[in-house]
Amino acid sequence: MKISKILSYIVMAIGAIGALLLFLMSNNFDGLMEKYGITETKDFVREGGSMDVLKEATSLVNPLYTLTVVVFIGVIVVTLIAVFSSLAKNPGGLKNTAIGIVAFLIVVGIGFVVAEGVEAPLNDGGMLSESGSKWVGTGLYTFYFLAAIAVGLMFFSGIKKLIK
What we know:
Helices cover 79% and strands 2% of the residues. By secondary structure, the protein is mostly helical. A hairpin with a 5-residue loop joins strand 1 (120-121) and strand 2. The two termini are 46 Å apart. The relative contact order is 0.05. The model has no long low-confidence stretch (mean pLDDT 86).
């Protein structure tokens, strides 16, 4: 049996488990909402609400959350195995990988230099530290730079095709 067929069966099984958990969760939420007289799910966490209601609602979501974490970790592990096995088979690709990583780190570094760190109040009454604010800004600037680079390269590629 080919690995692709095995993976297809695994994906179908995980999808079926996820669909079953979603069905059970949504049905149980309806019953829980009727039991406590709640009309919207956001009312589970309203101020003054019972912690018992919140605990019951959380227990309904936990299996689906656990499945999500397991799938996420599985995807990361499989991706890392595929990347490292590909690099082991083709050591020449290591240079290109290193260039990509260094280019990304340079963009992050530029984002870090451009970002400003300012203490800011949070909605829950706490304060976001200057360092935390700087890292949030770094992430935003990095995203903007990478998006601009991607759009620019697509534009350049389109113009290049028109010239040919």
